[in-house]
Design goal:
Blueprint: E1 2-4, E2 11-13, E3 19-21, E4 30-34, E5 39-43, E6 49-54, H1 59-64
Antiparallel strand pairs: 1-4, 2-3, 4-5, 5-6
Length: 84
């Protein structure tokens, strides 16, 4: 079962290898999370799927997965494609 942003907690690793909260992925983005599958879908303001990632319940889970924690600036402009 997926749940929309706002009712969710946790984090995902973005396209730059930085950690973002599913409740605030960045301007113009929203997340849907399948907690059972530990899967995050990041959608743009037009409804297009921009990114897929693993869902982590907290920072400790990210570290346990062997990923160095670096927070993304959620106020910065979003640049996903290589042509941006």
């Amino acid at each position: 079962m997926s749940q929309a942003t706002g009712t969710m907690h946790g984090f995902f690793i973005d396209w730059d290898g930085k950690m973002r909260p599913v409740s605030n992925p960045g301007k113009g983005l929203r997340c849907e999370v399948d907690m059972k599958a530990r899967y995050v879908m990041v959608f743009n303001k037009y409804g297009g799927l921009d990114h897929e990632s693993t869902w982590y319940p907290d920072e400790a889970a990210v570290e346990k997965a062997g990923i160095k924690v670096a927070y993304a600036d959620t106020d910065a402009p979003i640049r996903i494609s290589s042509i941006d």
